[in-house]
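Researcher: Here's my situation. A collaborator sent me these components and asked whether they could plausibly form a single complex. I don't have experimental data yet, so a predicted model of the whole assembly would be a useful starting point for our discussion.
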Amino acid sequence: MDKTIAFFVPTFIYLVIFALNALLPGRWVTGYVTKVNSSEKMRYHLNGILIFFVMVMLWLLLGCYHIISCDWLYQYRWYELAGAFIFGIMVSLVVVLPYPRIRNSFWSDFYLGRIENLQLLGGRIDAKMWLYLAGAILLELNVLSFAAHHWILYGIHASPGIYLTTILVTYFLIDYLTFEEVHLYTYDLFAERVGFKLAWGCLVFYPYFYAISLWSTVDLPNPHTTTWLFGIYALIFFLGWSLSRGANLQKYFFKKDPEKSFLGIVPKTITDGNRTLLVNGFWGISRHVNYLGEILMGTGIILCTGYPMLIWPWLYPLYYVALLFPRQKDDDVRCELKYGTLWNEYKQKVPYRIIPYIY
Ligand code: NDP
């Protein structure tokens, strides 16, 4: 019986998040994406951080009142993953099939999506933002349950590294939701369509694969990592966070107000009279230093588990390399088309793609 329930749990959680996203109060903000066949910018109803805390509180209450075991999501993770897998495919079909084809191949349309943006209930739900929110919250509930499993298994002999990993993943998610508005200025929002890649990616891959560092280590004993090593691992994480968050925020403020300084950095730009690009601060270090930051954060997270010789946790930062290196190339092509010779000028001024002085 529990296995059947577990199969439907991700669907249930996603539907609750959908309802909360629509019903709870939120901020209405103007985004970066322009509506199709219009010069008007899209509007978004953002309340992700509130829903995050509501869902975590509900999970804690269920655990405290022994309605479910705190590590329930860990115990039944394979059944939940199977349920999320099917739900992810169903949602992908729902967001693709009703819309007109845009490519010759159905499978390309299914994978990459047809419609650019999909909003429901008068804009209270934006499909892309809901997908990211749903994945982030289930990921958080998973990591909390995985950490609880470690505690149940080892008690006072538990590994502090497991808790540090849990704290860093939680920080990563809270940070994302705190700056939810900044996400409106990213590639997924302005350059991608709503299809399997996004829907299945957010509903299945995100909450389960991003938990791989804990999934693969919570049933292992304390490796007794030296305290100063934890300091170095946390430093790697926060260095990555500074690069990623710094670059994203600098660009966000620049797009909103090109004159505005960020952290005391006065924007230096190049322009063709029509369009403008930032060439200093984080955007002067490399053309995508935020991607380097993401990879460093992933590395810091998995090292904290204390099992650097285990292959599974490494899949997490390696996945970022596989995702972001090709994405940088795609973005370069897109920007070359959009900015023309100005982009070449930027490339001359900032020659490194991702890693300063190396790549
Ligand atoms: P960017 O935020 O780097 O956005 C690229 C776009 O920014 C370009 O297409 C261009 O768009 C604009 N741009 C590029 N260079 C400049 C410049 N010098 N001055 C002004 N504008 C510029 O990339 P993403 O949207 O891919 O990533 C956003 C964040 O999300 C990153 O931190 C990334 O690491 C993170 N991310 C996280 C993932 C995760 O799973 N955790 C997955 C993927 C990304 P335009 O000019 O048209 O505005």
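Model: Some features of this prediction you could bring to your collaborator: Residues 186-187, 244, 248, 251, 277-278, 283, 288, 290-291, 294, 327, 331, 334-335, 338, 346 surround NDP (CB under 6 Å). The CA atoms of residues 299 and 317 lie 6 Å apart.
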